[in-house]
Amino acid sequence: MMRRFLEKVFSLGSIQAAQMLLPLLALPYLSRTLGKESFGIVMYLGVVTLVMTFVLDWGFLLGGVRCVARQRGRREALSGLWWHGLLAKALLLPPLIGGGVLFFFLFPHPSFSPLAMFWASLAGIARGFSPLWFFQGKDDDSLRRLAVYDLASTALLLLLMVVLIRGPEDASLYLALLALSKIGAYGLLCLRTCRAYCFRPTVSGALALLRETRVFFVGGIAGQTYSNWSQLGIGGILPAREMGLFLAADKISRAIVSMSNPLSQALFPEICALHGLDDAARRLRLQRMALLAALLASAGGCALVELLAPAILQLALGQASEDAVLILRLLALVIPLLSLNQILGPQLLVPKGKEHVVTLAQICAAVVSIPTALTLTFFFGLPGAAALPLLAEGCIFIILCMGIYRHCPEQIPFFQSRNSGT
Question: Which of 166, 201, 236 finishes a domain?
Fold first, then answer.
């Protein structure tokens, strides 16, 4: 049992490395080879890839995983989930492609080519059809197979990039290699899964799955609003140098928290499966251990960043000015909030079917934190900008705690005693 769980953690860590860390190795080579203009286009069209992936992921990375975990051992139910998930993503394609075409014509750029836009969109679609949501919820070796395919396709991409990318005219070729490598990896995995789980899906079943997971998609949009889009507004107030320091410090703090993602992703389906088995004692023990581990690890991470901020900035940016050190130390306070929110929401509320509380928290965070942070940035500059993640994650933390107190106080002993006392 423990060995399989650790294998899942390692597999999810490998997938995260293939999708986030290894592609960073391409940036220095692309920057030198493509030149500033073509490199900028590749980076900007990477946003198109991310948007395509985000839409096709819908709410499957939480809602879909929960559905699969609750149906472990029921082959007919799993077959229905797999095929309805594929059909649901296919139904999202026409409006998504239409939006991409509209974007290309509404925001024309003389350096953009239809071919580059096509390959960037295709890469996003390929990633959107990744079977991660289905494999993560199952209790077998599917995740290990996905990790091998993901790592192999990314390594092949890096190898072909060095061999074939020779100048600025090859910008579209890099995007083509990215798209084809992921089509090959995920296409083979999807084909193999389709053969293993035979089922005749219906449009009504696919639409029902989209409706069941739509709350997660809405929450994702709200999260993107306060974590990314609000930074555009702050960028219109701060000078470019200060904006760079703020974004770098924010990425460092979030990168530290993301190191625990594989563990959280491995825990989530196990907790959902225990909900389906109605094993309350074991589920509560696992949830409380996760909460305690997150609290201790995040407190330690926060303390280390506060202590080593100058050294971290010197290593990451090659400089450690007083302003940068101050901002990183302020944003280090976000680390415990981020870690706890990742447990309180996905690990405690979502398995119980209370995902609307998580979405409400994200929406409130966007509504409250963005205008407040913009105002503080206008009056106080860089320290005011640092208030954005603190306000957002603090707002989410308060609402999640209120939701747990109301819907599932038994999951936190302090809330349980307070609730029973009233």
Answer: 201
Residue 206 lies in a domain: no
Token pair in block for residue 50 = 């991310």
Question: Average pLDDT of each block of 10 consecutive residues along the chain (422 residues)?
Answer: 81 86 78 81 80 91 92 92 96 91 69 80 94 92 93 93 90 92 96 94 95 92 76 76 77 81 88 79 84 88 90 71 83 90 91 91 87 86 85 92 87 58 51
CA 194 to chain centre: 26
12 and 74 part of one domain: yes
Q: Are residues 197 and 236 in the same domain?
A: no
Residues 6 or more apart whose Cβ sits within 8 Å of residue 366: 222, 223, 225, 226, 230, 392
Of 244, 286, 241, whose CA–CA distance to 268 is shortest?
A: 286
The radius of gyration computed from the CA coordinates of the chain, to the nearest angstrom, equals: 22
In a domain, 39, yes or no: yes
Phi, psi of 195 (to 5 degrees): -70, -35
Reference 376, options 363, 368, 367, 388; nearest CA is: 388
Q: Looking at the chain, how many residues does it have? A: 422
